[in-house]
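SAMPLE LOG
Freezer: B-3
Tube label: C17
Construct: single chain, 153 aa
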Amino acid sequence: MSSFILPSQQGALEAAFSQLHDTFGRDIVMFKSAQQITISTNVENNFIWESAPTNDVVQSIPVSGVFKARIKYANKQDRQKVAGSVAGKGGDQLNVEMEFGDVRLKLDATGAAFMKDATRVMLDGDIFNIESPKRPHGLFNPQFYDFTLKRLN
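STRUCTURE (predicted):
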C-alpha cells in the first residue's frame, strides 16, 4: 500500500508535533505510591505483633516525577459527556463526564508510562485524581496520550 506522505515527511511532521509539545507543555508533578524502605533489621522481629519495639524500622519514601503536559481545563460549555460526537451518535472519545474544573492532559510516551502507576497529579497548586485510562493519538503512530483528571481539593 502506498502513502501520499513519504516517510521522511512523516518524520518531519511528528518532529513538529514533538516541538509543539515541548514549547507549550507545562510542568506537572505525578505521585506514585510510596516505597517502603527497611532501615534496620532485627533478628528478634515479632511477626505476630506488628507494633512490637523489636520490629524493623520501615520508612516511606515518596515517589514522584515532573513531566511536560499540555493542559486543557473544562469550562461551562464542556459539561456534557464526551462519549459521542453528536447527541450520542458514535465517536471515539472517552466515556468520561467533564465537569467544570476537570482537566484533560496530553502527555508524551514517557509521561504516559509514569502515569500508568501514578495515584495523584499536582498542577497549578491543585491535586487531581486520574479518572480515565490513556487514549493514544498521533498522526501516523501513537505519539501522545490523553488523560482526564478530576480535582480533589
